[in-house]
Amino acid sequence: MFEKINEYALRCMPFTPQDLEKFDSLLQKKTYPKKSFLLQEGEVCQFEAYILKGCIRSYHIDHSGAEVTLQFAIEDWWVSDITSFHSQTPSVMYIETLEDCELLILTPETKEKLLAAVPGFERMFRLMVQRNLAQLQERLFRTISTTAVEKYLDFLNRYPAIPQRVAQHYIASYLGFSPEFLSKVRKKLSADK
Amino acid sequence: MFEKINEYALRCMPFTPQDLEKFDSLLQKKTYPKKSFLLQEGEVCQFEAYILKGCIRSYHIDHSGAEVTLQFAIEDWWVSDITSFHSQTPSVMYIETLEDCELLILTPETKEKLLAAVPGFERMFRLMVQRNLAQLQERLFRTISTTAVEKYLDFLNRYPAIPQRVAQHYIASYLGFSPEFLSKVRKKLSADK
User: Fold this and answer.
1) Phi/psi of residue B126, each to 5°?
2) Distance (Å, rounded) from C-alpha B179 to C-alpha B176?
3) By three-state DSSP, how is residue B24 classified?
4) Cβ-based neighbours of A110, under 8 Å, separated by 6 or more
5) Residues ≥6 apart with Cβ < 8 Å to A30
6) Which of B175, B140, B138 lies closest to B156, judged by CA?
7) pLDDT, tens digit, for every residue of B7-59?
8) A67 with A173: CB under 8 angstroms?
9) Which helix (H) or strand (E) holds A159?
10) Cβ distance B102 to B53 under 8 Å?
């Protein structure tokens, strides 16, 4: 059960078997059926979750009621609202399972215990957040400065495993399109083939 | 010279005077005149810079040649291309001083030394990146889902010190507007007053 997550940790830092044992002992396994909310707006996020199995979406609902998808996450990714988790303030996000999911969870308490016992994990979490930041920067550049067709092709290229697993209207809300507009973009691309 | 940056560090973590001494001894002070490039596309970023004085802009030039501003940074902020700095890969960004600047700089080598000597600084850098990530997430939500007028008002509200210090066309490129369009938005707002 801990094989994948230990591999993940070892890619960040040469932890000892004792370090990993401590890590594994603090992780809590949880399963959620498809379409469960892990977090809703106004709640305080109490988890950083590593995905063993399944697909998860995080999104925000804007003041006009439209959904903006922030992230799709699948096996070997982490999902959380880092801001809410760390400041223990109410979230502005929803995090929902799109498939049946198996997760390994750290809470604020177990994460604190882990960092106190093995400070080297600070580095793993810093690298995680850094990677996240780099992705989000690139996404912002693309959101501001590419055409609709480019945005969609880039999405397919970056996340080839996602389109087979999530509904089209979720992809539309990731790209900032209406579902009708995404449908037009896809038709145009098929016609151009 | 180190008073402000030590205060910054202490807001993240209760460092000892010895920790801060080590930190300060590794920082390099540099000054740059207005309109200097700290980084250009294709170069590998060799700094994380704390701003003692001045104003800096980071931006990206997209394939159509348009500038997209990622960040404006002023006193007590850090500026870097974290992705390029950490992976030591060529940057896709430009980082340019908009005013005469005084900076305190960490290089990959001095940062590594600092983290080896005082691992508690991992936490400070993780918090910095997390804060950055939270801001960028919010900005993405706003970019995707608010109107032009809302975007501009929100910018004024969040960064009240910036508009007096940077040219309007830079603000336009932050918001993803053409300069002409920003000018229209501003006229509309004055007319509505």
Assistant:
1) -65, -45
2) 9
3) helix
4) A26, A27, A28
5) A49, A102, A103, A104, A105
6) B175
7) 999 998 899 999 999 999 999 999 999 999 999 999 999 999 999 999 999 99
8) yes
9) none
10) yes
Q: Which of B151, B133, B161, B135 is nearest to B188 (CA)?
A: B151
> Which value does ipTM take for this structure?
0.75
Asked if A41 and A49 touch (Cβ cutoff 8 Å), the reply is no
Task: Choose from A48, A122, A123 for mutation: most chain B CBs within 10 A.
Answer: A122
Which has the closest alpha carbon to A105: A14, A28, A176, A175? Answer: A28
Assigned token pair, B88? 């030591």
What would the two tokens of residue B26 be?
């590794």
Q: Do B62 and A141 touch (CB under 8 A)?
A: yes
Contacting residues of A for B86, CB less than 8 Å apart: 127, 130
pLDDT digits 0-9 by tens, A67-114: 888 889 999 999 999 889 988 999 999 999 999 999 999 999 999 999
> Contact A62/B119, CB-based, under 8 Å?
no
Asked if A105 and A78 touch (Cβ cutoff 8 Å), the reply is: no
* DSSP H or E stretch at residue A164: none
**Three-state secondary-structure class, residue B165:** coil
Residues of B in contact with A117 (CB under 8 A): none
Question: Closest to A129 (Cβ–Cβ): which among B92, B133, B139?
Answer: B133
Kindly report the pTM of this predicted structure. 0.80
